[in-house]
Design a protein that fits this description.
10 strands, iron ion binding, alpha/beta, binds S-adenosylmethionine, 377 residues, Biotin_synthase, binds 6-(5-methyl-2-OXO-imidazolidin-4-yl)-hexanoic acid, TIM Barrel, binds iron/sulfur cluster, 14 helices
Length: 377
Amino acid sequence: MPPASHESRAASLTLASRGEVRHDWTVEEIEALFALPFNDLLFHAQQVHRAHFDPNAVQVSTLLSIKTGACPEDCKYCPQSGHYNTGLGKEKLLEVEKVVEQARAARKAGASRFCMGAAWKSPREKDLDVVLEMVRRVKALGLETCMTLGMVDTDQAGRLAEAGLDYYNHNLDTSPEYYGEIITTRTYADRLETLGNVREAGMKVCSGGILGMGEAPRDRAALLQQLARLEPHPESVPINMLVKVPGTPLEDVEDLDPIEFIRAIAVARILMPASHVRLSAGREQMNESTQALAFLAGANSIFYGDQLLTTSNPQAEQDRALFAKLGLHPEVVEKSARETCTDDARQQAELEAALVRRSAAALDARATELAYDAAQA
Ligand code: SAM
Ligand code: DTB
Ligand code: SF4
């Protein structure tokens, strides 16, 4: 491979001036970012990240499946699709009290956002009333709320927003070109329409995709282009590494090189400088070094808690240890999210402060250790 000249690298870097928010990226420009030497790409992503965020703060969300399995959609990656036999037991919509109990536990463990997911094509009228009550009750705990319920029309989005839903998650999943290989029961245009309805209703948008589904490098660039074309950018961008579930059509797809995954995180950070980029599903299958690189590349959000929707996530204790090792701390929720303040919310604020103090103490201890090592050397 011929070495890239310093000039060509510099030219590529000028494609993404530090922190500039753009919506008109071409796939070729994005591919040029992917092609940068890894160190240059990560350095650039760090610069963008630091211009917009505390580089050591990570937003912490916990997921709960509120309705599991038997989904009519045929997403080839998904253990919950009724089209495949993954041995997953189906569950009806959970009772509100059960959801509130789980949200309280998530808050106690240190999560600041509670994300509720349902295996639906779109919510039915009678289910929506229950879901709206879940939003109100979880919000009253002082947690930020997020839901992912499939497609929503303008009326449904309006009612969710009115109930106080902060974020709606609906992923584009992959490039428009590769999409038909993965899902046939809803279109890319359907997804964009739902995202438009969410935005119009005044909620924050959470939208990202899945990597490692056998897509080509250009598909990863094209997915990120689609996300960056949204105006405004999604506030939250989950980048999932495919969790290969036996029984799904993608169970044996070839692994994506972790370095390619990190590149995609770095490019997402550069394209959407002010968005939270979530190192989403797939952390259980990643080692600590890959996760550390993802944070270096600009990821600043995770799912925290032992379970994603139906598959496992690293144990909370393991994540607390990783945060301490890397000197990361949970991002403190903005004041506006706490304006609904109740006693419960105050408790949450105290807990967050305690978590920040704990991480700081771990950092101090590490610094003392290093100073001691240096003195011994
Ligand atoms: N049914 C709703 C929908 O698809 O809009 C919400 C739930 S669905 C499980 C939410 C997202 O989870 C999907 O869009 C997909 O990006 C992600 N997901 C599902 N299965 C996954 C897997 N095996 N690995 C990684 N991400 C996955
Ligand atoms: C997202 O992008 N990833 C989450 C959340 N949004 C809803 C879901 C990941 C699901 C992984 C497979 C499972 O646990 O069922
Ligand atoms: Fe259903 Fe969502 Fe799974 Fe697709 S990703 S099968 S819509 S639960």
